[in-house]
Amino acid sequence: RAKEGGRNRLQFFDTHMQAAVDERTNLENDLRLGLQTDQLVLHYQPQVDAAGRLTGVEALVRWQHPTLGLISPAQFIPLAEECGLILPLGQWVLHTACQQLRVWARQPHTAHLTIAVNVSALQFAQESFVHDVLAVVHETGAMAQRLKLELTESLLVKDVEGMIAKMKELKANGVGFSLDDFGTGYSSLRYLKRLPLDQIKIDQSFVADAMTDAKDEAIVATTVALGKSLHMMVIAEGVETQAQRDFLDSHGCHHFQGYFFGRPGPVAELARFWRDETQALQTQ
Ligand code: C2E
Ligand code: MG
Ligand code: MG
Ligand code: MG
To answer: Where is each EAL domain found (predicted)?
Structure first.
């Protein structure tokens, strides 16, 4: 009897494991197909300066699944990284963002805008990464100076020399770099000093509690000071309220991204920024 129970338990467990594996395989196949059939969409989230003017956007990918609806990147980027689909996916994101830059370059009121693109560790580790990025820039006719690549500290764990070499080569061609989710991963100030970064992003977890938690406030203040002394621009992410915006501003952080200024959305939603500016000019 005990033996039987054991076997049943084992079978039960197997069935569940099998179901999980099946679901994963399905999703992986769906994603492969989705990539080929235009199911991915790029949303853009505004980044603004102290005067509330749009300076650029971050490109954030979404997956319009035929039956499951709009899937967030938190749900499929890790899967894409595990099965290697992040490479074609990342290439698609880069290409789409650079095409958008090319469109914006044709209009005087949008020509200055930058697009920040998230890059996965696996993508960056490719031998051909520098070549691939520059090829997309050339193909689309985008200005490299308007493209920013967002890296995370997870990239810092191996081959720092190789990483710096790739960054320098891209920077020599005009591409900028931003360190995403700063302070949440493996941060080494020694590396931070050596990486040719243009910008660091204060992670939203620090922004969220900076006004109520003295330790988070200290982290925000220190990050701003660090960025300034290393000649890097500092931008805060996850800014949801006017009070947070003002608090960050008073701590010397003058660039913001967050729901308070706009959620990620289709490119057309950004038009209110240049409409607002035109109206401001007309009423002056
Ligand atoms: P991330 O690069 O740190 O992007 C910021 C995330 O915070 C986005 O989530 C954005 O929608 C969200 N966010 C922005 N403002 C606020 C706010 O005020 N409050 C709150 N609570 N959240 C805010 P999203 O779009 O779900 O993306 C999640 C992550 O997925 C990104 O984090 C990034 O690591 C990854 N990701 C997104 N697109 C791509 C991509 O094209 N390639 C790669 N490799 N990763 C991507
Ligand atoms: Mg990012
Ligand atoms: Mg981030
Ligand atoms: Mg993140």
So the answer is: 24-278
Q: Could you tell me the pTM of the whole model?
A: 0.93
**CB-based contact 201:173 (threshold 8 Å):** no
Encode pLDDT of 148-174 as tens digits. Answer: 999 998 887 778 899 999 999 999 999
Phi, psi of 212 (to 5 degrees): -115, -15
Q: What is the pLDDT of residues 225-246, one digit of tens each?
A: 999 999 999 999 999 999 999 9
Determine whether 240 is exposed, middle or buried from the number of CB atoms within 10 Å of its CB (0-12, 13-18, 19+): middle
> What three-state secondary structure class fits 180?
strand
In angstroms, how far is CA 276 from the centroid of its own chain?
26
Distance 180 CA to ligand 1 centre (A): 10
Atom of ligand 1 nearest to the CA of 240: 18
